[in-house]
């Protein structure tokens, strides 16, 4: 009878590995002020731990506000990690320029719907008060018969004299 009951598949973990990465100067402009930070690609150290022990003794999870690193601390971290002050200041200027471009783009996108409606309305008024549309319609009526001419594919062998 036990063979009829499908066994449940399980995945279990017994160890975990915590890797430490270097802190480097970042490029993400999504911060309020100061230098952006990120982690490097190559880890420096790795620690293997028993999962049960880690879960039993791990610190409480931090809130979003607690994970926010103040500008002064980011600047200090970068200097302690070997970044030159000049490079950090240049990156701050670059990030400000990126943010200004993002703000300009988002303000243009915000206005784009109303700009398109205005253009359509102004085209409608131009068409109403100009005879361009009337001339286009007249031209289409004159050339309408051209669309009805037979093409070489429409002519059968019987209609041609070779």
Spatial gap, N to C terminus: 86 Å
With strands numbered from the N-terminus, the spatial order across the biggest sheet is 1-4
Radius of gyration: 35 Å
* H-E order: EEEEHHHHH
- Number of beta strands: 4
How large a portion of the residues is in β-strands, by DSSP E? 5-15%
Helix content: 40-55%
What do the pLDDT scores average to? 82
Q: pLDDT below 50 for ≥5 consecutive residues: which ranges? A: 151-162
Structural class per helix/strand content? mainly alpha
Q: Rough shape?
A: elongated
Q: Which sheet architecture does the biggest sheet show?
A: 2 strands, antiparallel
Describe this structure in words.
The protein is mainly α. It is built from 5 helices and 4 strands. It has helices spanning 51-57, 64-67, 71-80, 85-129, 132-143; strands at 15-20, 23-25, 37-39, 45-50. The strands form 2 sheets. Strands 1-4 form a two-stranded antiparallel sheet. A two-stranded antiparallel ribbon has the order 2-3. The longest helix has 45 residues, at 85-129. It is elongated. 4% of the residues are buried. Residues 151-162 have low confidence and may be disordered.
List keywords for this structure.
162 residues, mainly alpha, two-stranded antiparallel sheet, two-stranded antiparallel ribbon, 5 helices, disordered C terminus
